Amino acid sequence: MNLVRRVSGNPNVSLSYKIKDAKDGRTYYKYAVDNGELKIVGSDKISICRGFYDYVKNNGMGMYTWSGNNISVPSSLPSVSPVHVISPFENHYYLNVVTYGYSMPFWDWKRWEQEIDWMALHGINMPLTLVAHEAIMARVYKKFGLSDEEINSYFVGPAHLPFSRMGLMEKLDGPLNSDWYNDQIELQHKILDRMRSLDMKPICPSFAGFVPEGIKRIYPDVRIVKTHWGGAFNNWMINPEEKLFSEMMTSFIEEWEKEFGKCEYYLSDSFNEMEIPFPDKGDPARYSLLASYGEKVYSSIKRANKDAVWVMQGWMFGYQRHIWDYETLGALVSRVPDDKMLLLDLAVDYNKHFWHSEVNWEYYKGFYNKQWVYSVIPNMGGKTGMTGVLDFYANGHLEALSSSNRGNLVAHGLAPEGIENNEVLYELVTDAGWSDHRMDVRDWLKQYSINRYGKAPAQLMKAWDYLLKSVYGTFTDHPRFNWQFRPGTVKNGSIYMNEDYFRGLEAFLSASGELKDSPYYLTDLCEMTAHYLGGKAEILTRQIDQEYLLGDTLQAHFLQSRFETFMLGMDRILSQHPTLRLDRWLSFASASGKTASQSNQYETNARRIVTIWGPPVDDYSARIWSGLVGSYYHGRWKEYYKGRDSGKSADLSSWERKWVEENRVYKKWNSDFDLIDFSRKMIGLSQDISSADLLLNRPAMIGTWSLVRNSSKDLLFNIPARMLVGLNGVSLECLKGKGDIEVTGLVLEADGKVIYSSSDRVLSDEGILNLKLEIPANVTANNGCVLKLKIKSSTDSAAGIVICVNKKQS
Q1: CA distance linking residue 403 with residue 405, whole number of Å
Q2: Is residue 103 scored above 60 in pLDDT?
Q3: The pLDDT value given to residue 85
Q4: Pairing status of strand 371-376 against strand 408-414
Q5: Nearest to 176 by CA among 215, 137, 219
Q6: Contact 642, 553 (CB under 8 A)
Q7: Which residue of 189, 374, 602, 624 is 20 to 30 Å from 574, comparing CA positions?
Q8: Looking at residue 163, what DSSP letter applies?
Q9: Which are the contacts of 680, defined by CB distance < 8 A and separation ≥ 6?
Q10: DSSP E strand boundaries for 362-435
């Protein structure tokens, strides 16, 4: 098998395989070594690949990951006891709609080939495959009368295309062009051909109702709805009851299959993170219209391909359950045959560890007997901060398998928004999908370490123990250090930095004596050192803010020099990492252009999505990358501190846009240095930094402020989404200066929508000002909340106050 030869490090590996259906129809593989030959039998080619990878890992021969491949299979294979593994799932799902924006938008075939190899070895047979969606969509739009200009200008830049596909936005960083369409068509042919050669079942895109506004020029009487998302973006959707909706759906699939051949699974999502344009709950018309909509989507797919299955994401089943209650979703799927629908239960980890809500298969009582996929979202936006309850990722699926409401559970999977991060977690989840029994995470981590580093010394296992008590024993929905946000807006980051976090990273460095010759160890040491310095840099920003607030600018400047040392230290060591680099990301983007203008457009788009995102959206896709830490994050903080010293607020919004749209220079580091020695020195330099030294270190503090005498100011503070539950007020406390302060305006936004506002004038009482918040029930937020305050001081001396969040008492 070509794949085995590509990844094994031995083109002459002695291997034979046979595909043989199990009598009970289950997915399985079994292998044994006979006279030096590895013999694998499996239910399909993906099972064979998984069986080979299982043999490799069980015998300490290495692993295949995004940051490298150290698989080394000897020519003479040692004998092993026969192994027989039966998966508790028929299929293994992979990818998220937005992975195609946060990680994959500019990949070439070489990178795609590596990813398909990764999928096959990890047992993935049901990947989401969305390349060339716009190329086919452009053909459909043109068929229905839209001009090239209307079509091209409607589409957004490549990194934002997933959000256009879901009807959330249009035009940003566009237009697209025929070169892009042609290249994507060619690339998708290679992707689908390779996937099909491995017996994969790719899930392909379809039409979901979204169109350029220009459609009204051709069909002036057609009903279209303007969609809204995040407070800043919009798109246009044809009313599902319109004949044109069904015609475009059918036309898309016909065009797709004319180009790429038959597909069994088609994804169509019309209501992701949006209000639905139907009557209120309890109104019979709501359920009638939803049932009609579901029927029209499926019948339109069926008209083009009678055997196709409609696939739908299920993020909103947990995130927007106040909209998608049992009756609402039930109505939508009621007229679709059970075997012709596949629901992606996208985020079980969010149900369990963030929303703390009933899992979806229980709430929806087995999903109405429709086929469904158990899935987790281990990452939002491609963030590189460590997080995740490893024990849950190893064993959470056992709850679904044993439930009386498991219904027609046909697949296990993972739907990360961004990949090439937290590799230990992905290795664990994909192993878990082939297991029907409880896994011991520590035992698994030992074998993982043997494969990754060649051995698992005591200091390394000590590091894992500490991390299991910190970042890998907790779940953070958006793990970011505070310095990855716009300065002055966030007090505390969201990475779980207890003392065990720092002890674990120190222990990882301590294992260098035994692991110094392991390339994988050196790769991970780059990342672990950066995470350590990142935590210390966060504490420093808070110490610097404290010194400014207390008036000691000399000490603030001294701490800023240390902050710069840590930020540039992160930037330098990550320059030696194979994937965590801005230059690598931008090289993919630039190479996608056929002309200098296209390359510049794509690079701008690539810069935007990993920084300000849109106009902006809260530094959502935060990466701890070389080139980004040193140029963007550190550069922005330097600009902010210049403003604090001068007394003039820095125009950070303009600075950010200029970096995205104009800056094409960032520091290049010399690669000739000792990684272990550098890590040891940097960690030694930063060990004394401790949050215990913070005078203003209150658990619920979200920011500080200061005013010159007799002045007013508009302030903005980010509140983590997790704090929204139970939030009922904020308090402003005067810590420096005397006199009255007042608030004359308050706005609280969640995901760009105003959920509470007040123009009441509230005065302080002996330096304390309490503001009540009346938040509607069932309000949720994915990315975070923004609190905007207009405050005024009537004192002759400067006032400094801390903003705290109050939780309701249970």
Answers
A1: 5
A2: yes
A3: 97
A4: parallel
A5: 137
A6: no
A7: 602
A8: H
A9: 509, 512
A10: 371-376, 408-414
Pairing verdict, β 91-94 and 408-414: parallel
Q: Which residues have CB under 8 Å from 516's CB, separation 6+?
A: 522, 676
Longest pairwise C-alpha distance within the chain: 90
Facing residues of 807 across strands?
Answer: 727
Phi, psi of 797 (to 5 degrees): -115, 160
Strands in 675-740 per DSSP E? 701-707, 712-719, 727-736
How many angstroms separate the CA atoms of 764 and 733, rounded?
Answer: 9
Determine which helix (DSSP H) or strand (DSSP E) holds 34, and give its type and residue range.
Answer: strand 28-34
Order across the sheet with 203-205: list the strands: 126-127, 91-94, 408-414, 371-376, 341-345, 309-313, 265-267, 203-205
Cα–Cα distance, 263 to 257 (Å, whole number): 7
Give the DSSP letter string of 255-289.
HHHHHH---SEEE--S-TTS--SSPPTT-HHHHHH
Q: Which tokens sit at 139?
A: 């053909």
Whole-angstrom CA distances from 130 to 104, 105, 134, 170 are: 10, 10, 9, 18
CA 313 to chain CA centroid, Å, is 15
- What is the value of pTM for the model shown? 0.91
Omega of the bond leading into 175 within 30 degrees of 0 (cis): yes
CA atoms within 13 A on the CB side of 689: 26
pLDDT digits (tens, 9 = 90+) for 50-72: 999 999 999 999 999 999 999 99
**CA atoms of 482 and 494, how far apart (whole Å):** 8
Which of 27, 786, 42, 127 lies closest to 434 in space, CA to CA? 27
Token pair 């439930």 is found at 403
For the four alpha carbons of 569, 571, 575 and 580, in that order, the dihedral sign comes to positive
Place of tokens 């003392």: 499
Q: Which of 717, 691, 712, 742 lies closest to 803 in space, CA to CA?
A: 717
